[in-house]
From TrEMBL:
It comes from Candidatus Polarisedimenticola svalbardensis. This is DUF937 domain-containing protein. InterPro entries: DUF937.
Amino acid sequence: MDLLKMILGANDGGNVRQLAGQFGLEETQAKSAVESLLPSLAQGLKNNMGRTGGMDALLGALKGGNHQRYLDNPAELTRPETTADGNGILGHLFGSKEVSRNVAARASAQTGVDNGILKKMLPLLATMAMGSMSKQTGGGANKDMGILGSLLDSDGDGSVADDLLNMAKKFF
């Protein structure tokens, strides 16, 4: 299942309703905001995975971060700890607050939703994106690397680092 569908469909749309209520938006506005912000998060994730150690850091975060709770329990989105966790995720994905501000400004221009609201929503969406990926990969404190790790671990040794290195060598 794709990331957007998973986030929009979580709890039968409960997460989108939570965001709408939390920020004083109509559900359609919250949905548009998610649809507009998520591609930038996905691009940041892709860029981060291309950096040295990025894939291992992602797998570690998915395995031990307990991010599913943000997707499974919409009330988690109201907690200050969720925003702090989301800002940490954004720091890894974007590298600077300036990029986050630009992402929110671009989404505001696309959706008509206030830029200030989108800047506050972005870290919450980052936690839901991690929760969605964690569910897809079987992440969690007591789980294996899951689907993502299995796909990347082509030699079955339990480590993706050597497999990624071999993939990179093919490009040079």
